[in-house]
Each structure stands twice: as C-alpha cells, then as structure tokens.
Amino acid sequence: MTGQEPAKKKKKRREPRTAAITLTCLPGTYEKNLRKARQKMEAQGLNMEGATIKRGATGSYIFEISGANGHEKADRFALGMREALKGKTGVKVQHPINMAEMRLRGLDESIKASEVIKAIATVGNCEEEEIHLGEIRKTPGGMGIVWIRCPLKAANSIMGTAKIQIGWALVRAKMLDARPLQCYKCLEGGHVRARCPNKEAVAVNVTAVEMRATQPKTAWQK
Q1: Per residue, what are the HEC states of the chain?
Q2: Considering the entire predicted model, what is its pTM?
Q3: Residue 162 shares a structural domain with residue 117
C-alpha cells in the first residue's frame, strides 16, 4: 500500500433539530396538570401549535419544537408552564439541553479548574454554569487530564480542531461516547427504573445499587 492514509475526521455528534420541554408529574396527575397548564397558558396567548408530543422513558411528556427559533420558544413555553403549575406537588418542567462528555489532556500544573471552564465557555459559546468539571488528575507522563460535561453544541465547536488553548498549551480534546441507558433496579441496560420489566430486583443487584448510592462518585462519574 503506497502513500499516506487519509486523516481521520474529528469526532462530532449530530445536534438535534428540535428544542424540547419536559413535563414530569406524579403518577395519575398528568391529565389534571396538563389541562390546567393548557387553560392558563392559552389564556395568556401561549400555545403549543406545531409541537410534537411524545412520552419519555420515565413516563414524562416531551414537547418538541422545531424551527430556527426553537430554543427561544422552548424557553418561553417552559417559563409559562412553570408559572401555570407553580405550587403543584411533584411537578417538574425543564428545557433540557443536549450534553456531551469530553476528556481534555495536556494540562500543566498551573492550570486551575476555573481556567478550564472559562476557556470552554469562550470557545464553545456557552454559559459557565452549564459546564461540569471533574477533578484534574495526572497522567503517567505527568500532565493533567480532566473530564468535562458541557452542552453538545459547545463540544462540537471544540472538536472542530480537537484542541483548545488553555494557559500556554494547546490541550487535546476527545469526545466520549454517550452512555447507554441503565436501570438502577436490576442494573440491566436498555431501560430505566420507571419502566423496568422485572418485578423484583435480584438480591445481589439490590446490594450493588445500595453501594453505588452511598459511595462518592469519582471524577469520571460526576
């Protein structure tokens, strides 16, 4: 085989074309809460015309809004729904943002966590509050390595070159694979506890779940 092999493309993840709002209620209260939210929001001129409605893995309602201003509309509708259902027990309204996990490698000892967060927010054009940082650790070679969780859009911006300037160094970035669903009742994959098909948890798995709940998370699990 002659010549050089073509360079691999930098790994990115497809960003969703829609913005979403999730409504989570206590079992048996969805009908009443949805009706109340619809009545109050429509009276204020807020409606969900054109939205696609789905049920999530945990039973929550997901309202998907498409279009160029989807995220702005989602913010507005989420605020209106929170106001309409304010004070209701067990009600949670969220405008989730697709997140991604990354690993940064090549930090020198002078770099602080706040500098890493600021650099990611600047390059990724996101808010510092949206960035979650693990503990900066040392590799066998003596350089720093850290786990990052940030908005997918910001991660894709960084992965355009797979490098980011932090301090004096160009730090290498790697996008981590999305974690699969895992049930915390039976520890099987592919579903969540709210929709677990197993009526009883296996004793050994119950012990594992209890141990996981009491043990502190590592920098790679946070």
Answers
A1: CCCCCCCCCCCCCCCCCEEEEEEECCCCCHHHHHHHHHHHHHHCCCCCCCCEEEECCCCCEEEEEECCCHHHHHHHHHHHHHHHCCCCCCCEEECCCCEEEEEEEEECCCCCHHHHHHHHHHHHCCCHHHCEECCCEECCCCCEEEEEEEEHHHHHHHCCCCEEEECCEEEEEEECCCCCCECCCCCCECCCHHHCCCCCCCHHHHHHHHHHHHCCCCCCCC
A2: 0.58
A3: yes
